[in-house]
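Revision sheet: structure tokens.
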Amino acid sequence: MLVQTKTIKKVTESGSKRHIDNVVIEKTSHIYLNDVLIATLSHTSQNEKELGVGYLFALNKLGFVIESVTYEDGMIRIKASEEVTAAIHHQSTIKPNAGDIFQLTAYFQEAALLYKKTAVTESAALGKGNTLLYSAEDMTQMNAFYKVIGAFLINKNHAMTGYSLLVSACITAEMMAIIIRCGVSLVITRTAPTHQALNMAGEHGVSIVGFARGRKYNWYY
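Predicted:
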């Protein structure tokens, strides 16, 4: 179950009325790498295995190859070689294709089902060309980000060069440090990058698109 309904009172200048609201349900999971407890995270009730894998990749605890991952009784158990991944440098930044950007952002908005129910979650997705491949939502941008990284790594065993990452919130330096290890070539956000994140992207050949809403966006080059 992702949400719980609750009766609230909606108040406006003209008065108040009873209203049924959807409230996000939080849950807690414990993440194990090779039977060692690494962390405990609070998150929404979906994509638990993907969350665990993406979180460990973000911590630089594992590489692109995952041997196995299971989820049961609040425990995410991952088997993988413990290795450190280095930043990936692209020789040149790609020029975004407007048609692809417009199509990806439309699919991205359509996929935000939990946000449409609650208006409080953040989203992330991975795409290639004009096709959205993996998407996820959670209470925080980083959790949603971990989930799409994990979804990719569970299904693939290589870097994300040539793929596009979509996020709903600001691109921070913390997020960019993970992005450049993933090998993502293009990052698309509904908002904008920080100055530090933009500098890091430039140093590693990652193209950034901001304020991608409807049929318009800003390209930072």
